[in-house]
Records
---
Amino acid sequence: MKKLFSFSLVAFFLSFCLEIAAAEGPLKAAWSTTDCLVGKTECPSPFGNGKTQKFTAWRGERLHAKILLWSSTDGGEVGFTVEEPQANHWVDDATTGFLRYVMTDELNKDGKGGCGYRPDKTQFDSSLVADRIEPIRSLRYEAKTVQPVWITFDVPHDAVPGLYRGTVSITYDNKVCSVLPYSIRVIDRTLPEPAKQKFHLDLWQNPFSVARMAGVPLWSKEHFDAMRPLMERLAKAGQRGITATITHKPWNGQTYDYFEDMITEIKRADGTWMYDYTVFDRWVEFMQSCGVGPYIYCYSVIPWELTFRYYDQATNSMVDRKLAVDSPEFDEYWVNKLKAFASHLKEKGWFGQTIIAMDERPEKSMKAALRVIRKADPAYKISLAGNYHEDLNAELFDLCIPYDNKYPEGVVATRRAAGKITTFYTCCAEAFPNTFSFSQPVEASLFGLIAAERGLDGYLRWAYNSWVESPDQDTRFRTWAAGDTYLVYPMNQSSVRFEKLIEGIQMFEKIQVLKSDPRRARMVGRLLQPFAYDKIKGASLQKEIRKVNAYLNSK
Amino acid sequence: MKKLFSFSLVAFFLSFCLEIAAAEGPLKAAWSTTDCLVGKTECPSPFGNGKTQKFTAWRGERLHAKILLWSSTDGGEVGFTVEEPQANHWVDDATTGFLRYVMTDELNKDGKGGCGYRPDKTQFDSSLVADRIEPIRSLRYEAKTVQPVWITFDVPHDAVPGLYRGTVSITYDNKVCSVLPYSIRVIDRTLPEPAKQKFHLDLWQNPFSVARMAGVPLWSKEHFDAMRPLMERLAKAGQRGITATITHKPWNGQTYDYFEDMITEIKRADGTWMYDYTVFDRWVEFMQSCGVGPYIYCYSVIPWELTFRYYDQATNSMVDRKLAVDSPEFDEYWVNKLKAFASHLKEKGWFGQTIIAMDERPEKSMKAALRVIRKADPAYKISLAGNYHEDLNAELFDLCIPYDNKYPEGVVATRRAAGKITTFYTCCAEAFPNTFSFSQPVEASLFGLIAAERGLDGYLRWAYNSWVESPDQDTRFRTWAAGDTYLVYPMNQSSVRFEKLIEGIQMFEKIQVLKSDPRRARMVGRLLQPFAYDKIKGASLQKEIRKVNAYLNSK
């Protein structure tokens, strides 16, 4: 395990905070916004210790609250308890606790995004951000720092509309030092259950990272046990895609834990192929049991290196075979494999929900992929996460283009009429909005609004949990801006970014409900205008979101 | 390809030979003995240019003749033709041709054997020996060298007894320069067909070397095609054992081409094992089709490193697992594998002829092997090539001890009465007799006589064709004295050593025939006395062998 923080910047962050020192009493506590990051040693400007934190919610909605604790004293034991409005339990214990600071870095020096290699960490400024939600209710307070508390309420789907009141009590050395009231007004509207959400969420899962961090053998019972709460969390957010890999290193091992082929491919001594789907089946069935689905995205016919690894019976060894996309061997390899795969999928009853998935690759490669897929079974569904290509559009059941890219007029409507999925994605390329660990949390809540404004079906991000070496402490990686590779933490710990993403999805869902009323649809349209590509601005975001929320939560 | 000869010793060998210079005429030719090596630049003492080479043979016997060619002139085209006694063809074309010189080294400096590493070739004297029989009938003669011709006759099993005469014509630049007469007296006795020989010959085959030298994929049609003549040659010599490997590197990869597991072992993601016998079956069936059998020797429950390689489905990778012989995991691994193997062997009808084979290993390991084999199936046949161990003896269907080791009184007879096989072996340890490429060829013909003298069933050598890097040119290796690792050459070229080994086997077979007559048995017993362990001597060998042969070929 790497040591927590390894360089002198830390000393700088922990230097004495005059403002904190000036605060009265042993420990201050105040509600704070969940939209923004706070500095670990930056004295907060509380917006009302005694004030009530007021929520309005639909039935079935998830709500987030943040409390800041700070003190000029030396450290001590701090804790909190949530007095709930009524007997039934609304607090999500797994997503309520203290926020933990993790190391992050920054955008590229030109401010234009976070792509590229970062082998030398000193080339980027690093800082600490309170992103990880550790589900504990007490800890040793570190003197002269800001310690945030994160509370997640899940309003039940069967909650009776009305006003609910509760408090959060803060204790210092086992004595209550603050009581912070809150209220939740539940209105007579209901958000759909995750499985019935309209939002198409696709965050790619990395089971290999989980095995490493949990220290358990791949695909063992212990591995699935370790993944279950994490993947159930994802399902609850509305995840629609199971990320499956059908080649060794589809993305050339760009993540700390590379993705391995879930199809066992054996070249027999007589030259024929034997496929075994044990791993694939176990993974898919497990994910389905977690509530993720219905789609199974299979990466990739065109892995970045075009190298295909298989077990070679004759030599009792692994073979890496490089195949040019215009070679007969490429077609032979894939048509054979995809035909057998189609048979297997049909046997399992999964063929209709399985999508052979591609990333943006050179045109020649993408056409080769289409060619072999169609040769193997013309009915295969195909997806692309990449730029819009007019001549590929019709072939793609699921098309996902970058945030900066634009669908031509009419394309989305035509695709929707044909029952196809049309979404957008962010990755390292977008400076704003994004979900780097240094991004302002409010940015994560925009994706639902942006999808709504563009009339799209949802959002894709390539990394739900491709963890780095020490993901709990340091979100930085050898490539890309910090946090690019994961939105949740090991041991099923959520992040501020992931929770804010959910807020955006909920807004999207509310919009879908209200849009059925043409009058409301027009109003919603107007309220979404500030989130259009050419209008969206960091400065006014919170105000505009408040406006949308006020409308969505009005009777 | 390495260059043919890489150091200055060659210059020494090729230095001017005064005696050769003194020879008359353009090219001299004379019969020579097959028992001894000749120097490449050493002027021969011909024992009669015009003399007739006289053979006496049983029907079905293989006969060898050697002719030396030498000249003081510059090089030229030389060739030979064999005029056969009658219309039907007795010459074995695949084993008749020019002898080729190959590089060899010598015994260890203490003269006690050829074991140990030889990383520095300059630590040993090197020389050229005419060992490889290339089946060609003409070549460019290299001036002032001795160029031997090798002729192999196979007297048909249905030959009519009588005296047959023929000649060998030597041509120099397409003109006959010598005609050497020979005669073969066929007596009214018949050697058994190879499959009916009593001699238990076990030379371990290395299919992996053949694939490399032929440049063909393992277990492909081309691979089997390349092996067929080589393995049919072995079958014709009376080979009884198919060398199969059931672990990765049973001998820790000590040969240039290591031995790979012929059982495909797959650890499935659910922790269960899947075995596939495609390679094993193809190899065994191929060897059977070549006439090798009936036994299938499977190496080894106790590979030298105790590391077991398998394909791990969960990680899509090869795993090397080290297992201590006293661990429950060792038993679990082997009992499971050997049980499944027994079922497969029974299905194929091979169980009764399959032998789980061991080399000499620490007592604890050998006992562990017996334990797991017996647990898996008490009826498995087991073999050991190693020292005599009284407490293992009863367990072993096939027991093979080193040349220098001795069976206690009565053991061989008891074993034979129980239908068991009892043999001896040579390896790097024996200075004499042996089949290093610098050993005198006559030594190879002793093994049949030694087996007969000791009352054993046959002989084992651990390497029929474990070829070195450039086996056609250089028989030296990184370990052991040169030639230790192979008796035949690529492209189905035989060696003087291998052919002389066959002569010894034929003597053994003749002895078995004659021994049925008690009077002859006594006489044979007397004639074999000089080949007893404490009496055998290099100096008188040829004389003693002549005596034995004279008796075996008498009416």
---
Amino acid sequence: MSSCCGQGLHLDPAVREDARRRLRSIRGHVEGILKMLEDEQVYCVDALKQVKAVQGALDKVGGLVLKSHLQNHVATAAQRGDAGDLVEELLEVLKYR
Amino acid sequence: MSSCCGQGLHLDPAVREDARRRLRSIRGHVEGILKMLEDEQVYCVDALKQVKAVQGALDKVGGLVLKSHLQNHVATAAQRGDAGDLVEELLEVLKYR
Amino acid sequence: MSSCCGQGLHLDPAVREDARRRLRSIRGHVEGILKMLEDEQVYCVDALKQVKAVQGALDKVGGLVLKSHLQNHVATAAQRGDAGDLVEELLEVLKYR
Amino acid sequence: MSSCCGQGLHLDPAVREDARRRLRSIRGHVEGILKMLEDEQVYCVDALKQVKAVQGALDKVGGLVLKSHLQNHVATAAQRGDAGDLVEELLEVLKYR
């Protein structure tokens, strides 16, 4: 699935657990917005705020995964010899959106 | 729920429907990441990409709601006389994250 | 220069003055980074922080201009009859980067 | 100036040169906006577009410095033994704004 790198590099188990916990809560938050949008009287800005809140929660998940990747894989890249590929890949994903 | 404004201002029904359709797909995408994170071998950057993709989809939803709000409520604010409040509120939510 | 709209719509003089004052300070900040980068011993993250600080200051300028535009031009758009164009144009510029 | 790290870590000379070249051009761009804002007839969105363009150019500079930092300092951090500090510091600056 990954383009270039990551063979044998796995997300830290504790971070993976934390990310899953947060994503379950995010799924619930999305459910909440869906419910909110059933109401014909919903106000645009109230919906907008909820969307932003979910994005903030996703930022948090992304930050955890990024930190783990930097610490466990990027910081050790020179030792493994794949620094060039890993850095390119990371920069690509950081400007993704 | 809304702080200052929005009395009698409702999200356009067609936009509301579109947003719901997209949010159901986003919920499915979050499910997909949860499944992905069950795998002990998952690679950080693959997870990161999926998180970014969901954020992109949420940006889209936010953009639709924002457009509708600008067109239906902000652009008519001077006629109603609540421009000051509506603009403050909007700027607040735009820098939310 | 502007694509579609803005005929006869001018930036509020006080905001224009404030933006100029801030941009002069931003120019000085850029000068400072240029000076900083003359030093062969400069540390990446120190440079990065300064770049981010300038971007924060530019965000501020953008926010002022945006607020003025929303208040003086978007909120009155329905009265003038150019809401559609103005909103399209604004959404375009908001996702510019 | 830097909080925790960076002793003996210097920005790559070629990147430093490239960043300076770009920042000189950015300074000129800021000059241009200052001139633009002397005009009483300037349209908000035209000013906004220029501000966004400068931010895009600064993103580019930031990206170059970040890439160099990742490659030359973060990827070698495990060898030096300062991975923890460097990663904390980097995450801090990435969410700066």
